[in-house]
């Protein structure tokens, strides 16, 4: 949805034989102002002093049907004005509810991912199973991985392994004890740290330091 201030110029190029990819409607300011209290996105749009664009979305079956009804309406006069205003109101409401719902879903996912990250950081000794974690969060493993990567820039596995990579550097660049390095990379139990290190590298911390 675009909002243009009065007098603004917006150029659209249409080509014969090409499918239309956008729908342009002109809801009344009274309608938009009345809905702004319920939809934060719309309130932000109305407060903008320049061109403001709400998220694009695919047109669903319901919206296609509304558009088709608009195209086929033939009764002239005041009835047309009332009919079009009603249909446009439904169309705008449907769109706003969709992006509002998507925003709520995104917010919930962000909260879940942040809690998941905190869990990994606080309890590094706890095994991480992405499939089981995704089920608990109500999403697919792929969706979990994508959301996690969007937040941290790396996969769940690499995030978990970061501690081991940091431990490798400390083992080679410092004289700190295994227990001290274990604590520094987040493991309160240095015995578990040694097992995790060997599971990842094939060597115990002591063997890794000695051989390198």
From TrEMBL:
GO molecular function, one term: sequence-specific DNA binding
Residue ranges of every copy of the HTH araC/xylS-type domain listed in the record: 114-211
Pfam families hit by this protein: HTH_18 (PF12833)
Keywords of this entry: DNA-binding, Transcription, Transcription regulation
Superkingdom classification of source: Bacteria
Protein name stated in the entry: Helix-turn-helix domain-containing protein
